[in-house]
Amino acid sequence: MSTTSAAAAPNKPTNQPANRQKDRLDGAAWMATLAGMAGSLVAVGLARFAYSPLVPSLIEAHWFSAGDAVTLGAANFAGYLAGALLGRPMAGLLPNRALLRLLMLATSLAFIACAYPLSLGWFFAWRFVSGLAGGAIMVLVATSILPHIPASRRGFVSGMIFLGIGLGIAASGTAVPALMRLGLHETWLGLGGLSLLLTALSWFGWPPSAPPQDIAAPAVEHAPRHEGGVLRSLYAEYALNALGLVPVMLLLVDYVARGLHQGADVGAYYWVLYGVASVAGPVAAGSLADRIGYGAAYRIALLLQAVAVATLALSGHPLVVGAATVVLGALTPGIVPLVLGRIHELLPHGQTEQRAAWSRATTAFALFQALAGYGYSYLFTHSGESYAAVFLCGTVALVIALGADIVANARRRRHAGKDLAGKDQTAKPAAVIRS
């Protein structure tokens, strides 16, 4: 036996524990992950989704008219779009750690300010501020944390970060109604107090700007000449995904309560089911992506969403509607880490490029989410309150998104194959392109 082979044999098993140790999340990584989850919970999960169950009480308590309450809901969407656009410019003015702390404080202050309905303009401004903080945090939170995470654990960690959105959805159907028993004023103050507590707990968890030197980039080889087209397609697909999800956010409870004649209590139960599923969605989606790649996981998610929304349009059976609710609840926040991870697959080596691409994707989603809210409301009103028409529009958007992704990645693989064929056949490829 040669000395080379004899030496190589014992090295293989000794390297495996070292690699596993390197891929473990240390204390700082866990603190950063929990800080990211707290950020998404405060600025998106609570700031957006906790408002919906408060609307009837805002009207009944004569704080605002029904029309004004809808306008105030739109203020958060408008702020979210502004935050998605301004997140990167703001990051150029302050270190990420300081900016994320400031944004969480702003959201907490907005909750407290909303406990005092001084005027419609006052309330609108603070709802806008909470939306702006949410949009900026969505742009910055993951791209500030993931460079500090081992490549093999980034799917799991991104899922944990966006778990905060799911927790907020779940709280909107459980904790917020419980707080409402104390009164509107107390509910807003309670949300503000919870946000301040989460801000304090996450204060020292945010990572520094520079990642550790031993954190490796994903083993992905990309083709810069062709990735631009795939990225542009991904932005459009994410925007279409918003068109597919908004019908459920807008109409699920009303569809069950009035469309299926089940009543408001049963409708609220389905919203709780939606919220519970949303808690599991991000981590499950991220863990799946770690196993099969973000591209494949993303296409599976698009397919499941399309089937679920189509099911709502075609069937009113309680069990079928419940199954669709679980799928859509899981994937409403679950799609976020998949799109973010897909961007990291396509741009594996440039943090600046990753942040710019994620900002564009978030902006596209925010814009079409806002447009969908108004567009579907118009369609619903002018179609004789046809739930099926709205759900079918969402289905079509998701099917188009899935088809676009399949076509874009087929072209990408074809171009990549041509590039590899043109290289020296004796050269060994550095890595495999994941689609």
Brief overview, please?
By secondary structure, the chain is an all-alpha fold. The chain contains 15 helices and no strands.
Describe the overall structure:
- The protein is an all-alpha fold.
- The chain has 2 domains: 183 residues, Up-down Bundle (Growth Hormone, Chain: A); 210 residues, Growth Hormone, Chain: A.
- The protein contains 15 helices and no strands.
- α10 runs antiparallel to α13.
- The longest helix has 36 residues.
- It is globular.
- The N terminus is likely disordered.
- Keywords: Membrane, Transmembrane, Transmembrane helix.
- One of its GO terms (molecular function) is transmembrane transporter activity.
Helix content: over 70%
The helix/strand class is mainly alpha
Helix tally equals: 15
CATH topology of the largest domain: Growth Hormone, Chain: A
Write the layout of secondary structure elements.
Blueprint (H helix, E strand, L loop, with lengths): L2 H21 L3 H23 L5 H6 L5 H26 L4 H18 L6 H26 L8 H20 L1 H6 L3 H19 L21 H36 L4 H29 L1 H21 L3 H29 L4 H32 L4 H35 L14
Helix pairs in contact: 2-5, 2-6, 2-7, 2-9, 4-6, 4-14, 5-6, 5-9, 6-14, 7-11, 7-13, 10-11, 10-12, 10-13, 10-14, 10-15, 11-12, 11-13, 12-13, 12-15, 13-14
Pfam family, one: MFS_4
InterPro entries: MFS_4 (IPR010645), MFS_dom (IPR020846), MFS_trans_sf (IPR036259)
Keywords: Membrane, Transmembrane, Transmembrane helix
